[in-house]
Design a protein that fits this description.
By secondary structure, the chain is an alpha+beta fold. The protein has two domains: 72 residues, Orthogonal Bundle (Arc Repressor Mutant, subunit A); 131 residues, no CATH class. 48% of the residues lie in helices and 17% in strands. It has a three-stranded antiparallel beta sheet with strand order 1-3-2. Helix 7 links the parallel strand 5 and strand 6. Helix 1 crosses helix 2, helix 2 packs across helix 3 and helix 8 packs antiparallel against helix 9. The protein is elongated and about 65 Å long.
Length: 210
C-alpha cells in the first residue's frame, strides 16, 4: 500500500462518496478536477475501497482500508466542531444554517448560546428529498451526543450567502431572534450595529446608565 494514498484528496473522496456514485459527481462535490479525482479513485480502488463498473463506482463499505480510514477520521475529528461544519460541503446537498447557527453567521461568530464542548447541535435546513443521503453521511461521520446535526427537512427553502456561508436570510434570522428575545437580545444589538438596522433594541450599557 502506498503511503501517499493517505492524503487530503483521498480522505475527502472517502467522506464524500456514496454507495453508488460516479467520479464526475465526486469531483464536483469535493471541488477537485476530474483528472485528479479519477487518479485517486483508481488508487482507492486498488486499496479495496471502490469497485468500478462502467461510469459507476460502488463503495465497498466492508473494505478494511475504508473502515480503518473512517475510524481514523472519527478518532481524530469526532470532537472537532469545525470539521463537522466543513464536512457539510462534501455531502452534495442543498443546505443552509438556521436558528442559533444563523445568528452566529450573521453576527460573524460574535454570538453563540446554549452550546458547549459536550453538547453542540449544528442547526441546518435540508431538503426532504435529501434526507436519506444526509442520514447516510451523518452515520458515516459518527455524529452523536456531543456534536450532532439538528436538521429541519423542508420541501425547499431560500438560501442567502454571507461571507461564503449558506444561511437563512438576515430578515428571517432577526425574526427568530425577536421570537426568543430574552436569549438573543445581545445578538440583536450586534446585528443592529453591523447592518445599520433600526430594531428598537437599546444597548444594555445605555439601559444600565439610564
Amino acid at each position: 500500500m502506498k503511503l501517499d494514498i493517505m492524503n487530503p484528496h483521498a480522505m475527502r473522496i472517502m467522506i464524500a462518496s456514496r454507495p453508488v456514485d460516479s467520479i464526475s459527481s465526486i469531483s464536483r462535490r469535493i471541488g477537485l478536477s476530474y483528472g485528479w479525482a479519477y487518479h485517486w479513485v483508481l488508487e482507492l480502488e486498488k486499496a479495496g475501497v471502490f469497485q468500478r463498473s462502467g461510469k459507476r463506482i460502488f463503495l465497498k463499505e466492508d473494505s478494511s482500508f475504508y473502515k480503518h480510514a473512517l475510524g481514523f477520521l472519527k478518532s481524530a475529528f469526532g470532537d472537532d466542531v469545525d470539521f463537522h461544519y466543513k464536512a457539510l460541503s462534501l455531502f452534495g446537498i442543498k443546505y443552509c444554517f438556521t436558528s442559533t447557527d444563523a445568528v452566529s453567521v450573521w453576527t460573524n461568530g460574535g454570538y453563540n448560546i446554549a452550546r458547549y464542548r459536550g453538547y453542540y447541535p449544528i442547526f441546518i435546513k435540508a431538503r426532504s428529498t435529501d434526507r436519506e443521503i444526509f442520514e447516510f453521511y451523518s452515520k458515516k461521520l459518527g455524529t452523536g451526543t456531543a456534536i450532532f446535526y439538528k436538521a429541519k427537512f423542508l420541501e425547499d427553502f431560500p438560501v442567502e450567502m454571507h461571507q461564503g456561508v449558506p444561511v437563512d436570510s438576515l430578515e428571517e434570522t432577526i425574526a427568530f431572534m425577536k421570537k426568543y428575545v430574552y436569549n438573543f437580545q445581545p445578538a440583536l444589538e450586534i446585528v443592529q450595529e453591523l447592518y445599520s438596522r433600526r430594531l428598537g433594541v437599546k444597548y444594555r450599557e445605555a439601559v444600565l446608565n439610564a
